[in-house]
């Protein structure tokens, strides 16, 4: 269940910050080259702006909508610039503005937009990666340490990444975990991981991340600590090929117990696992299915099922998907009054289509239908429509 969020600041301030960041993005290339930056093959610059214009046409908390967006500006450094060819570094600054649709209009628990969050701007990622052995070796080993988005390494849904709904990024049962999330958007976490890949492309990933994403005093502010300072999220994943696709199997656990969902005076370990199968179904057709489970004592969502298909049609990508989350037995007791008919699941159906209209711009019409939003029997199922805009630049 999502944590309560502070009220959003006036939109004119958020828009001015986003405009300023976009200006910085456009100025980056000129500034960098004027300072005699190493050649482009050693330094990579990039920027992106993703905006969701969504509106609730019926049901939910209220009718209405708005524009939420995420802007990123990043620098990638190849270790060759320092004479260390197997070292790479990455720094990403982020700014977020706009309303949180799920709180203001829909009332759902999972999140109808993967970029909705309270307005903020901060350092998002800052890490270094060391390739310990060559990729052509029988066993290729790499390590990564720093401020990391856990979802860039674990539970990565390649086919599902097309969709706007948040659960097609990180599964709902994992996304809900941790005191301030498991180190995914909008707040990353300090951590370290090791990756080992065989020549047959079977890959093992093991990671240790601090349990608290962001500062302990203010979880809207990033913090770089030694992993485990406030407890740790331990996560492992094995990925292996299957036909024309792949399978991911992951397990995760927090080392420090968290308050139980039905009794805050007692605690229990937050832990769970997931299985993801995705790949080519037929020419131009891709699909995936993901099942995730979490300990119902410390996690409201104990079971999540996501699935969908994507069709390539010329320049278009057409997709339909489902995100289904179920309340655990303990959460039902704590969150659902005995006097009402219990709604123990929330299901979001999504229909989307994306097409690049320029090298730097992609447009994506969007339609969602959220059944039983937020498990709340007082809310009718919500019909959501809108458009996603993706702007990207890289050099």
UniProtKB/TrEMBL annotation:
Extent of the signal sequence:
1-34
Keyword flag Signal: yes
InterPro entries the UniProt entry points to: Carb-sel_porin_OprB, OprB_Porin, OprB_sf
Q: Its domain of life?
A: Bacteria
The record's section on Pfam families has:
OprB
Arranged from A to Z, the UniProt key words for this protein are: Signal
Family stated for the protein in its record: Belongs to the OprB family.
Put simply, this protein is called: Porin
